[in-house]
Every structure is written in structure tokens, then in C-alpha cells.
Specification:
Layout (H helix, E strand, L loop, with lengths): L2 H6 L5 H34 L21 H26 L19 E6 L7 H12 L3 E8 L6 E4 L2 E7 L3 H17 E6 L2 E6 L10 H8 L1 H18 L5 E5 L4 H11 L2 E6 L11 H14 L5 E4 L2 H11 L5 E2 L18 H6 L7 E7 L6 H7 L7 E7 L3 H11 L5 E4 L7 H5 L4 E4 L6 H4 L4 H9 L3 E4 L2 H7 L5 E4 L4 H12 L2 H14 L5 H12 L4
Parallel strand pairs: 1-2, 1-7, 2-4, 7-8, 8-9, 9-10, 11-12, 11-14, 12-13, 14-15, 15-16
Antiparallel strand pairs: 3-4, 5-6
Helix pairs in contact: 2-6, 2-7, 3-6, 3-9, 4-20, 7-8, 12-13, 12-18, 16-19
């Protein structure tokens, strides 16, 4: 089914056409089967009583029906063929390549390398990629970042000495789906005469399904097609301006970086921001596919980078690669707040009184970050305002939980601040919290940016008792840890530090001193060494 994925690894003109043909074949098969199902039920639908109407004249939805047997068969077939095609593609890419004509060298008279980085997000707030790209650009390299475009971002820009190119995500099934919705809308549209005059009404089509099942069929291949579209557009964007090195930020960009490195003879660098195959946001099917991708491609990378020792050891254990270089997600020393920091920025933002301690969580509002536990713990905190500063898809659920627990006067949700201003707000807090839950191995080994941001701002930390967090928080003596599932332990740890001002001041001073060791200026040296031998 994903023949386009296999063709992607052959830099031939059929690259883009293949995945267009793929999408069209899926749609044709789905629409034909859908039309047959509708035709079979058309006579029965016409002879059956019409859908119920309300007193206002609006038509109610017909009951949802079971999927036709043809769809069940097609769904199973596509799922099986998808896995086979993807595995064939990564096997083909993982085969030994011909000897390169020349190893990575800066051209004569041209003292810098051309580096292309790939990141599968809009590159709006990705602090790690921003710092890495800026560091290499400051070192004299020509750096270009390929990211994802959305309507709020510029398609191309220059920042901090490097270029950013954003690629639109508009795969063929998006276009087909928009066309199908227009056709369905035209077929359903009509008017009904009411006491207020003619009013628009939508009449359901014979199948009675709220969502056409061929739309649900497309969801099976939605993510693969999005990735294929990004890879194809990135390949077209980069092949006219080949680079000396291709830097893949996370596993989902490793295939396109490996393809271009293989095609042009450039160096491949794999930067594993997390244990991607152990994240909680992917399904078991996706996990199996991405594991196969990583297993085949990680050995092709000439340098592997990751974010902590535990993940480095895990990658070595799984794939037998040389221990990756660990580059921690530390903020710049120059961004650290100065002594005598103002305490009004965050308080003014959330409306907290000057005498009320602030317990801060900053970052994404995502599942398994332990924010629900923190809200529940707020009921047992003696005197403080808990501030959740960030954004994310579970924000409505968090607000509802705050209301249900009756802690509106203790917990405040506020929006994020620009990365350049973040440390000034962080420094206003009395405590920083990292309440992550170890739902998967990636969370178990977590070393989030906020750990080092709290440290840099001189804020004592209360964190879940997980291996990497214990290694920093307890071993450096910069805070307390607690059992991640126990809201009472969390509240006790917070109360202990808030009630002991001298201890809290000591922990804050220790955290600030530790930031002299854990900062981006020191971590950047490791990154620069990766590119030095090739210069």
C-alpha cells in the first residue's frame, strides 16, 4: 500500500508521483465500495419513513450503521500491506551503500560546512533546535532548518544567522477530502419552509453515517501520507542545494535525512530528542513501524546525539551502536536572571499577592505530565498559588478539574511567554514542579527543559522520583522528590520547602551554582566537536 514510501528512497522523478498515485488508488477503491453500498441501500432508504424532524423543522441524524463487509476487508488489507511496504523501504535504505566519492569536506577556499537540519514541527518554540542551529551558525557554518509551515508562520526567514524553510503540509488525501466534502455538501443542501420562512437544511445521504466510512478509511493512512508528503517536499527543496551534513532532529525526520545523505554523500547526524518509540502519543502499530525504521537507519548515522545518559544507554543496548553523545537541554548562561531579580513579572501576570508563595509548572499541557496530580495536591498545600504556565490540548480538561476540585483560588492557568523572556518569569517563582508520570520508558527517563530552566533561575525543584530527575535533583541537592502517583507526598514536599525559608534559599543557591556546570555554553562544545573533524 505504501509503495510511495519505498519509491521515496530512489531519488527518481517518480518520487512525488508515486505517493500521489498511492493516495488516488486508495480513494478510488474506497469511493467505489462506498457507492456500491449506497446503491444497495437506496431503494430501502427511499421506501422507509423519512428521518424524524423537530418542531423547528430541522432534520435529525439517521442512526449510525455498521461498516460494509468490503470496508472491513479493505481496512485489514491496507493495514497489513502498509507495514510490509514500510519495512521493505527501510530495508532498502539500510543496505550498504557504494563507497562515497569523497568524505565530508569543506570545499577549498570555503571554510564552513553546509548543514541542513530537519525538524517535524513549525519551529516556533523548539528551544533545542534553535540553540543548536544558532551555535553552528555562529561557528561559521551555513545552516538551514527545514520545518513545517502553518498559516501563522513565514514560509522562509533568517534568524540568529541561519535560514529557516517551512514546508506546507497538503498531501493528496487532503485535497480529495476537501473535494468529497464539497460534493457531499452540495448533495445534502436544501431548504425547508417554516413559520419564519425558507431555512437551509441538510438531509443525510442514504448511508446515514455521520462520517463517510471512506473518510475513516483514510485515517488509517493519514500519518504515513503526511510524512510522505513532508519527505517528498523536503527532498525537492534540498536536492537543488545539497549539503555536506544532514542533521535529523528526532526519529520522524531520520528517513529523509538518511535518504539525502545517501544520495549526496553527506554526513548523517541523528539527534534523538527523546526515546521516540516509547512516547505515549503513538499507537502500538506505529511503535512497531518506527522501531523497524530506527533499527535499520540508526547504524547509518556517523554521529548520534541524545538528551540524557539513560536514553544513550538504551539506544546502545537496543541497537549496538557506539554510545551517543549526550547534549543536555540546558539554557544559555547569558539567559540566566541576574541577582536581585524582579519578583513582579509572574505575579503581575497571574494577579498573585506579593506575600503569597508561587509554585510554578511551565511547559506543555499534555497527558501524563502529572498536571492532574498537581491540581489535586493543591487542595492540601497550606499557603501558595499554583501557576500552570504554558499551553496544550488538555487545557480544557485541566480547567474543568480545577473547578470540580474547588481550587480556583489556588490554581491559575496562564499562557506561555516568549522564550527570550521565560527565565525572567521563572525566577519569580518560589518552587518549580516537575510532576511527570512514567507511563512509558520515554517519560521514565525524562530530563525536560524545565529542569535546567529552574536550575538556571535559582528555583528549588520538587520532582517525581524518576531516575534522571533523582540524579539531578537529589544528587545535586537542589530540591525534593516524591512518588509520582501520590498527591499527598507532592503536597508534603511543597509544604516542607515553603515552610522552611532558610532551606529553600540554600537549595536555590545550590541550583544556581549547578547551572554554572549545566548550561548551553558547555553543552555546545560537544556539538561543535561533532562537526570539527569534517572541517
Amino acid at each position: 500500500m505504501l509503495g510511495g514510501f519505498a519509491v521515496l528512497y530512489d531519488p527518481a522523478p517518480g518520487l512525488v508521483m508515486s505517493h500521489y498515485v498511492l493516495s488516488m488508488l486508495i480513494l478510488i477503491a474506497a469511493v467505489v465500495l462506498d457507492w456500491r453500498a449506497r446503491c444497495r441501500g437506496w431503494a430501502a432508504w427511499r421506501s422507509s419513513p423519512g428521518p424524524a424532524t423537530s418542531s423547528t423543522g430541522w432534520t435529525s441524524r439517521a442512526p449510525r450503521r455498521e461498516l460494509p463487509s468490503e470496508l472491513v476487508w479493505l481496512h485489514a488489507t491496507l493495514a497489513a500491506v502498509t507495514r510490509v511496504a514500510i519495512l521493505r523501504a527501510v530495508v532498502a535504505l539500510g543496505e550498504p551503500e557504494p563507497a562515497r566519492a569523497a568524505r565530508l569536506r569543506a570545499p577549498a577556499g570555503h571554510p564552513r560546512l553546509r548543514i541542513v537540519m530537519f525538524v517535524y514541527n513549525t519551529f516556533r518554540t523548539d528551544a533545542r533546535v534553535l540553540k543548536e542551529a544558532g551555535t553552528l551558525a555562529a561557528g561559521g557554518h551555513d545552516v538551514r532548518v527545514i520545518a513545517v509551515w502553518d498559516e501563522t508562520m513565514a514560509r522562509a526567514e533568517r534568524r540568529d544567522g541561519f535560514r529557516v524553510t517551512r514546508i506546507e503540509r497538503d498531501p493528496p488525501h487532503y485535497k480529495v477530502w476537501r473535494a468529497v466534502r464539497r460534493v457531499r455538501g452540495a448533495l445534502c443542501r436544501g431548504t425547508r419552509t417554516t413559520t419564519q420562512g425558507p431555512r437551509p437544511v441538510r438531509t443525510p445521504l442514504p448511508s446515514g453515517n455521520r462520517h463517510a466510512w471512506y473518510g475513516r478509511l483514510l485515517l488509517l493512512v493519514h500519518k504515513p501520507l503526511l510524512y510522505l508528503d513532508f519527505y517528498a517536499r523536503a527532498f525537492r527543496s534540498v536536492r537543488t542545494e545539497p549539503a555536506d551534513a544532514y542533521h535529523a532532529h528526532d526519529l520522524n525526520t531520520l528517513p529523509i535525512a538518511a535518504l539525502l545523505a545517501r544520495t549526496t554523500g553527506g554526513m548523517l547526524v541523528y539527534d534523538s530528542h527523546e526515546l521516540f518509540t516509547e512516547t505515549s502519543s503513538i499507537s502500538e502499530r506505529e511503535r512497531r513501524v518506527w522501531r523497524a525504521v530506527e533499527r535499520r537507519l540508526i547504524g547509518r548515522a556517523e554521529h548520534i546525539i541524545t538528551v540524557c545518559d539513560s536514553i544513550a544507554d538504551e539506544l546502545t543496548s537496543r541497537y549496538g551502536v557506539v554510545t551517543p553523545t549526550v547534549v543536555l537541554n540546558c539554557p544559555r548562561r547569558s539567559d540566566a536572571p541576574r541577582a536581585g531579580r524582579p519578583t513582579s513579572l509572574l505575579r503581575a501576570k497571574v494577579g498573585a499577592d506579593l506575600g503569597t508563595p508561587i509554585v510554578l509548572y511551565q511547559g506543555g499541557f499534555l497527558p501524563h505530565r502529572g498536571l492532574e496530580t498537581l491540581i489535586d495536591a493543591a487542595m492540601h498545600i497550606e499557603r501558595a498559588t499554583v501557576v500552570l504556565m504554558g499551553w496544550g490540548r488538555i487545557e480544557p480538561a485541566l480547567r474543568e478539574r480545577i473547578s470540580r476540585r474547588g481550587v480556583e483560588d489556588r490554581v491559575v492557568i496562564t499562557g506561555p511567554v516568549p522564550q527570550a523572556d521565560l527565565q525572567g518569569y521563572t525566577a519569580c517563582a518560589d518552587l518549580g514542579v516537575i510532576p511527570y508520570h512514567p507511563v512509558r520508558l520515554n517519560n521514565y527517563y525524562t530530563t525536560p527543559n524545565k529542569l535546567f530552566e529552574y536550575m538556571s533561575a535559582g528555583v528549588p525543584i520538587v520532582a517525581s522520583r524518576l531516575p534522571e530527575l533523582v540524579r539531578f535533583v537529589e544528587d545535586l541537592d537542589i530540591g525534593l522528590t516524591y512518588h509520582w502517583a501520590d498527591e499527598h507526598q507532592l503536597a508534603d514536599a511543597i509544604n516542607t520547602l515553603l515552610s522552611d525559608e532558610p532551606r529553600r534559599q540554600r537549595l536555590g543557591s545550590t541550583a544556581r551554582a549547578a547551572s554554572e556546570r549545566y548550561n548551553w555554553e558547555r553543552e555546545a562544545v560537544k556539538l561543535e566537536r561533532i562537526y570539527e573533524p569534517a572541517s
